[in-house]
Amino acid sequence: MPIFPPRPRTIRTSAALLLSACLTVGLAACGAPAAPREQAAPGFPRTIDNCGRTTEVQRPPERVVSLNQASTEILLSLGLEDRIVGTSMWTDPVLPELKQAADGLPRLAENMPSFESVLNAEPDFVTGSFAATLGKGGVATRTQFEELGVPTYLSPTDCGTKDNSGSGDGSRSEPLAMDVLYGEIRDLARVFDVEQRGEKLIGDLKRRLDGLDVDASGTSVLYWFANSDSPYLAGCCGAPGIMTRAVGADNAFDDTHAEWPQTGWENVAERDPDVLVLGDLTRRSQTAESAETKIEFLESHPVTQDMTAVKRKRYVTVSGQALNPTIRTVDGAAELAAELRRFGLAR
Predict the structure, then answer these.
(1) Is the dihedral of CA 233, 239, 245, 247 positive or negative?
(2) Segment 110-113 long-range contacts (CB within 8 Å, at least 24 positions apart)
(3) Nearest-angstrom CA–CA distance, 253 and 148
């Protein structure tokens, strides 16, 4: 991988001061002039068609802020830990194999960071996994960053056939495929000029997913992310849909295209799934975040304690990140496959 000399810190610091001033008086009042175009590095500029926008970089980014854990773990898997100057929105501990690389990474916030805190990290590139984070109502819009000379990248798993215009977590007109996530890895590898690393990561994920070789047809699975009052359950077509198809099972809420519809426990009990997949989150922003708390609730609530999966303790515990479109979705599918075999529900 070619190494390019860092730009002078005085340029970045001046930009940061301008950005802070713009935040104080408002971008429109400030005028928010775009940073002058720098000379492109050899093999650059590179452009990426990304969620209806064009992202262009003049050289491999040196100071990236990744706003979501999923994006951070892709960058770490590509060996780019030395380029990351800020992360946020963590729901789980980092993957064990990435722990050493992640040690010392600055976390701007456990949940949503402020626009100012991101700018203070002086990024030359910003990535996000969700439009709710990198968009209106989130940290800032992509336009706000780009007007200040900072290119952005939004995961294609959160655009395209996904509609984020309504309330909640959006809905999908078509089932999400792993190829979209592979495209994200390929895009980021190209931006950072590490294409070979990207193809290796994609190849490893494909081999693991294709090698599951399990058939759980006729088995219904329900995915519970968080919240005991009005639970967030997986609809047909997000990352849990990839997991369900990988093992040949049926999603108990396959009739809804909402990403994470909320419903009552009476509705869940009526569907009486064979298996419950429980997100095991370490964050503290909803009720029933950890798998342990979820199981305690299920086994004590009068509506849920007589469900088939609860009485037979057919619980599959996965990280919260496995239930989002991430490299961990493959881990989730593998864990689900192993547990379905253990329950005697898969061939």
Answers:
(1) negative
(2) 110/283, 111/283, 111/285, 112/88, 112/138, 112/139, 113/67, 113/86, 113/88, 113/139
(3) 43
Which residues make beta-bridge pairs with 316?
277
pLDDT in tens, the chain (347 residues): 332 233 333 335 444 545 554 554 454 445 444 445 567 888 999 999 999 999 999 999 999 999 999 999 999 999 999 999 999 999 999 999 999 999 999 999 988 999 999 999 999 999 999 999 999 999 999 999 999 999 999 999 999 999 999 878 999 999 999 999 999 999 999 999 999 999 999 999 999 999 999 999 999 999 999 999 999 999 999 999 999 999 999 999 999 999 999 999 999 999 999 999 999 999 888 899 999 999 999 999 999 999 999 999 999 999 999 999 999 999 999 999 999 999 999 99
Distance between CA atoms of 26 and 28, rounded to whole angstroms?
A: 6
Encoded tokens for 345 = 């529900």
Residue 324 tokens, joined:
């989002």
Strand-pair category, 84-87 with 53-57: unpaired
Instruction: List the one residue out of 140, 112, 149, 142 whose CA is nearest residue 51.
Output: 142
E-state strands within the chain: 46-50, 53-57, 64-66, 84-87, 125-128, 152-154, 162-163, 171-172, 220-226, 232-233, 250-251, 275-280, 315-319
Structural domains of the chain in order of their starting residue, each with its CATH number: 61-206 (3.40.50.1980), 214-343 (3.40.50.1980)
Pair 130, 155: CB distance under 8 Å:
yes
- The model carries a pTM of 0.89
Q: From residue 243, how far is each of 97, 183, 196, 275 by CA, in Å?
A: 22, 18, 27, 13
